[in-house]
Design brief:
Distance between the termini: 36 Å
Radius of gyration: 17 Å
Mean pLDDT: 87
Helix content: 55-70%
Largest sheet: none
Number of helices: 4
Length: about 110
């Protein structure tokens, strides 16, 4: 029988492509957010996708200084925040939270 060490408080298991198909789920979530932002910001979908990709790169670069990959480097919420701030020039909390909700519902 396997026993856990006494000091272990949590274990994280990466289930991408094990229990579900990551790429199709991620595409569904991203598509839903692109549709939402197209309606809300009147931006062309291609520009939304490009800006979202830039936001992802920016967030990952900002977090790289830790010299370790952190869970927050995968945060869609941070990607959406950066993207909306690039586009709108300010933080729009309700829109950013709506993007995250829509993403995970479609995911």
């Amino acid at each position: 029988m396997f026993t856990l060490p006494q000091k272990l408080k949590a274990a994280f298991i990466d289930l991408d492509d094990t229990l579900y198909a990551y790429h199709s789920c991620n595409t569904a979530g991203t598509t839903a957010v692109v549709e939402l932002l197209h309606r809300k910001l009147n931006m062309p979908p291609v520009l939304i996708q490009e800006t979202l990709a830039q936001a992802r790169t920016i967030v990952k670069e900002r977090l790289r200084h830790t010299r370790q990959e952190t869970a927050s480097s995968h945060s869609r919420l941070l990607y959406f925040q950066n993207m909306v701030e690039q586009r709108e020039g300010r933080t729009e909390v309700s829109l950013i939270l709506e993007c995250e909700r829509v993403f995970w519902q479609a995911y």
